[in-house]
Amino acid sequence: MSETTNCLISHPLKRYRECARSIWNIYLMDQYQATQNWDLLASYKRIKQELFDSIVLVPVLQDDEVFDYQLGFPCSRINVIPSQIPNPGNRWDMPVAINRIKGETAGYWDYPVTRITSQAELLFVDFFDWDAYGFIDMSIVVAEINAYPESPDLIGHRLLVKLMYVDSIFIAAASDGVGTVMQGSR
Fold first, then answer.
1. For 100-112, how does the pLDDT look when each residue is reduced to its tens digit (9 = 90+)?
2. Are 7 and 186 spatial neighbours (Cβ–Cβ below 8 Å)?
3. SS3 of 136, please?
4. What is the pTM of this model?
5. Smallest Cα–Cα separation from 79: which of 162, 8, 28, 17?
6. Nearest to 157 by CA among 149, 167, 147, 165
């Protein structure tokens, strides 16, 4: 029975974040603010996707593996988990802001539940900024609640969580075995 290896990808995600926000803040923000040219935003979206693919996905995919993921949608193979420093074990909760409407990525982030426990399975969607057209920090992660036995009504809702509270794991392609977490990519 072969074993799949899940990979901690927090460091590559932070490298992607730094690169993507630097490109916007240094090279594109002023131009967009001066012209309000929507083509520039479309170009930046394509740049972000290429950076994400190159910095985050390519290093963890097998040589012949194809995985097509588009930022802005829940990624079935990237789980958002509580920060592993210090190691919380299987007991944790973290502060979040949950969108009041299931599946929404904009609008009101004021759902009454303000903390998520270790029972939640969270899928990475993207990074978030309150003002996406000004100076961006990308210090907030958008995730979608994929499973949550404690509150099944929250499944499908998007949430915001500060990057400092989370790590991310890339889920290896299923084979015959049980997945394990490889710590080497931090």
1. 999 888 899 999 9
2. no
3. coil
4. 0.88
5. 8
6. 147
